[in-house]
Design brief:
This protein has 462 residues and is mainly alpha-helical. The chain has 19 helices and four strands. The chain has a single domain (20-460), classed as Up-down Bundle (Growth Hormone, Chain: A). It has helices at 2-8, 23-43, 49-56, 60-88, 90-110, 118-150, 156-164, 166-181, 188-194, 197-209, 221-224, 230-237, 241-269, 275-303, 306-327, 334-363, 368-393, 422-442, 448-460, and strands spanning 13-15, 18-20, 395-396, 419-420. α2 (23-43) runs antiparallel to α10, α8 packs antiparallel against α14 (275-303) and α15 (306-327) runs antiparallel to α16 (334-363). It is globular, with a radius of gyration of 22 Å. It is a multi-pass membrane protein.
Length: 462
């Protein structure tokens, strides 16, 4: 067995009868880069919504729809992407997604070129966004599959954390860079061009180095098991009350994050904050989230206290979201605003990898792409609800407040002027409170995968 492993990797090592391969880190890098590039496409317009609306001559809701497209596409093809990854393998899913992402990024560039009639520019950029949206489900469902098939039990949570948080990392970069690049409408095409670089690199690396679906020898006993067939797995996950609770609660969390990332500029500009400040808040939310996710991933890898960690994090995230909703009702409070958004990011993003691991634990031996993919689909459902409702429940900014607003006219509802998003944030907060109560009170599950591996180790002494 060792000779067989050495043919595959010079740095593999033996742990009982299981083998891990160094190239798993390269594959992790490919998925991370692909997720970063795709996420930058998704959220590239959010922190420059006013300039985007002016460039494409559209309303604020049409700008939001560029992000909403990702959520709608996930609902349409999310199950198909889970089936494809589970049936045809991780490699096919990753290669398909990186190529489609790159094609979408190139089409987006066309919308910024002068020879395209201004009436059609928005339609062209929407086509590019839609292709990126089609690729996203494959990329978001790949991390748990990669972690389960290629990483040993004591590295799965951290591998899942790194690959899952690459999507928020892309959002961080877009929120930070978009306001810096797009200082005027004629700079928006430059942003579209720059955001094609990472998808291009991901295509090259995936084509050259993503060569296998599974390792020659599994890294753990659970990786060696044959999972449930796709449609049987679908039935099993919804027979688990614990998974249904997780499906709702994680969906709310992912949905709120998606909505907040989309409308943050519209939330803050009415209080006089600049696009640069909005971009900074979005970037800090995710930057602190990356730290929180890394810490929670390391912690649960060592302690295996997935349930306790998830319950603490969702309660803390809800509290800080409520605080953010209250503080953003007032002008001239940049420091408290940043503090609240940083804490929300740390707690909310810390919950994401823990929740995805819990989905696998409470549905094992259902395939990882199925259990995690359904959570992401739930997130898109609640994201759509939050984004659409944020426009529906927002109110016209009082006349006395309009002089203090920093929103460009094009971001506003053209009949009522700038919109106050206070009720939108409170609506999201109420969702978060309900989800927290459900998870704390109703979520209980044995760790089925960990227990199966423990039993295997006791029986075979490894």
């Amino acid at each position: 067995m060792e000779g067989d492993a050495q043919l595959q990797s010079t740095s593999s090592y033996r742990d009982g009868e299981f083998v891990v391969y160094t190239r798993r880190w390269f594959m992790l890098l490919v998925i991370c880069l692909a997720n970063v590039g795709n996420a930058m496409m998704w959220i590239s317009f959010a922190s420059v919504a006013d300039v985007t609306a002016e460039f494409y001559n559209v309303t604020s809701f049409q700008v939001d729809f560029l992000s909403l497209t990702y959520m709608i596409a996930f609902l349409v093809i999310g199950l198909f992407s889970s089936w494809l990854i589970d049936t045809w393998g991780l490699r096919i899913g990753v290669l398909f997604s990186v190529y489609v992402t790159l094609i979408g990024a190139v089409i987006r560039i066309l919308s910024g070129l002068s020879f395209v009639n201004k009436r059609y520019k928005y339609s062209v950029v929407m086509i590019g966004q839609t292709l990126g949206a089609i690729a996203q489900p494959f990329l978001l469902e790949s991390p748990t599959k990669l972690a389960a098939l290629w990483f040993p039990g004591n590295q799965r949570a951290i591998a899942n954390t790194l690959s899952t948080m690459s999507n928020p990392c892309g959002i961080l970069l877009a929120n930070a860079l978009s306001p810096v690049i797009v200082t005027s409408t004629n700079k928006l095409p430059l942003m579209l061009e720059l955001y094609t670089i990472i998808p291009a690199i991901a295509v090259i690396l995936a084509t050259l180095g993503f060569c296998e679906n599974t390792p020659p020898r599994p890294p753990s006993s659970s990786a060696a098991e044959v999972g449930e067939p796709f449609f049987d797995g679908l039935k099993l996950v919804f027979q688990s009350r614990s998974y249904i609770v997780l499906f709702i609660c994680m969906g709310v969390g992912i949905g709120i994050f998606s909505a907040l990332s989309t409308v943050i500029e519209q939330v803050l500009c009415v209080r006089g904050y600049s696009n640069e400040f909005s971009g900074l808040c979005g970037a800090l939310m995710i930057g602190c989230g990356l730290i929180g996710a890394l810490l929670s991933g390391v912690y649960v890898d060592r302690t295996k206290k997935f349930i306790e960690t998830a319950k603490v994090l969702i309660c803390c995230a809800t509290f800080t979201l409520i605080a953010f909703s209250m503080i953003t009702r007032f002008r001239g409070l940049p420091a408290p605003t940043i503090l609240c958004i940083c804490l929300f990011g740390a707690f909310a993003f810390g919950l994401l990898p823990v929740g995805l691991e819990l989905a696998v634990e409470c549905t094992y031996p259902v395939a990882e792409a199925t259990s995690s993919g359904l959570l992401w689909m739930s997130g898109q459902i609640f994201g759509i609800i939050c984004i659409v409702s944020s426009q529906a429940v927002s109110t016209p900014l009082p006349v006395a407040e309009i002089p203090y607003s920093n929103c460009a006219n094009s971001t506003a509802n053209r009949d009522s002027g700038p919109l106050d998003m206070t009720w939108s944030l409170l609506f999201m907060s109420s969702f978060a409170v309900i989800a927290s109560c459900l998870l704390v009170v109703l979520f209980h599950t044995p760790y089925k995968r960990l227990n199966a591996e423990k039993k295997y180790g006791e029986e075979y002494g490894c």
